[in-house]
Amino acid sequence: MKLACKYIDSCRGCPLGHLEFEEQKNSKKKKFTDRLNQAFSVHALAQTEFDYVFPVFDGYRTRCDFVYAEGRLGWYDQQKKFLPIDECPLHARPLIEFAKELIKISWPIRLGSMRLRISPDGKSGVWLDLANLDTKYILSEPKYLTSLFDAGVVVEMGQKGKRVVKTEKGFKLSDPEPYSWFQTLFNDKIVPLNALISSFTQTNPDLNIRIVKILKTFLGQTSFDSVLEFGSGVGNFTLFLSEYASSMSVIENDFRNLIPLKQNLEQYGLTDRVAIYENVNTFVLSKPPIGKNSLYFVNPARSGVGSLFDSPIDANHVMYVSCHLDSFLLDTAKLEHQGFRLSKATLFDQFPHADHFEILSYFLKY
Ligand SMILES: C[S@@+](CC[C@H](N)C(=O)[O-])C[C@H]1O[C@@H](n2cnc3c(N)ncnc32)[C@H](O)[C@@H]1O
User: Fold this and answer.
1) Do the beta carbons of residue 179 and residue 123 sit within 8 Å?
2) 3-state secondary structure of 268
């Protein structure tokens, strides 16, 4: 089985897309195990349980960041030239249809970014990240936004993720307003998760539920005195993690995630049990109650956890979810020096045809 895509030779999104899917899987498995074997001692890997999950081939993405130029949506190609894309085989059908509707509008923009989202309940949303002058002009001329509003599309604009609202006097920007753009697992039920269109979420809500289920099997019946979560985003994993301890601390520094995070904690009755820190320093200064029977759960951006593992950590349990193998290995080498061993390692491929994958891992100190 091979990806059918007319852009395969020029688009940068799918560098492995010219391979048969079986070959892709084998090359990712090999990369994963080879790099882990190089990075860790035999001792650290002696009892590791490995698993490899390839849950999806195409048609799954429900959000996409496009460049808008030349009246089209697209991306930059391998030569960094704008490549207009009619449709991407990785996108879910509603996302493809929404993109087609969006470019019927003659946007008065030379260059800008548009993030498109489809929610689990089928709502469409677009985040227009444009030059200030373009934003002002689009708000002042009803013809650009009216058809979107008539079709029930949610529109956010600008770096602050402000919601566009329609008033008697026309369109204007209002405070960011989260909507259930995503879903997660809480108390073993699939529940809506509030986010902004401009917030971080994983690639697809159903794959996300599968990730949470795997992480829950890692933890089994364990319970912790406390959980520290680094990179909580809008609270995607915070909800299920709260089932394992009576108190939690989360570190998250992006206000586009913090706004919905606070709303999600309130909606699910967790405000009193979860303390939020906006950076590692304020977390450290607060001297939170992290002891041996605590869990560090980290899901950082590609750059990794920064200084979080530089000094010895008090907890005996670390769960690390990563989409970037290099920073994962750099960070977890520090854990090995502190006496941790890798107990579980799952390659969860939520990026088919790309050369990266999600790593779900659980480290224990003996
Ligand atoms: C890969 S996302 C994961 C978000 C969330 N766990 C989820 O599954 O949706 C990484 C998150 O880490 C946050 N982050 C990155 N660097 C950070 C830092 N230095 N301090 C706190 N949060 C950070 C980002 O804003 C982002 O929300």
Assistant:
1) yes
2) coil
Confidence label for 289 from pLDDT (cuts 50, 70 and 90): confident
Q: Are 321 and 24 in contact (CB under 8 A)?
A: no
Q: Is residue 330 part of a domain?
A: yes
| Residue of 184, 249, 253, 297 best suited for mutating to test ligand 1, as the one with most atoms within 8 Å of CB | 253
- C-alpha 120/C-alpha 182 separation (Å) is 6
Longest distance between any two alpha carbons in the chain, whole Å:
69
CA of 203 to the centre of ligand 1 (A): 14
In a domain, 339, yes or no: yes
User: What range does the domain containing 124 cover?
Assistant: 63-179
Q: Please state the length of the chain.
A: 366
- The tens digit of pLDDT for each residue in 301-327 reads 999 999 999 999 999 999 999 999 999
Ligand 1 centroid to Cα of residue 254, in Å, is 8
User: The domain spanning residue 345 has which CATH number?
Assistant: 3.40.50.150
Task: Looking at the structure, tell me whether residues 104 and 42 fall in a common domain.
Answer: no
Please report, for the chain, how many H helices and E strands are present, in that order: 10, 18
Classify residue 199: in a domain, yes or no: no
Element (H, E) at 191: strand 189-195
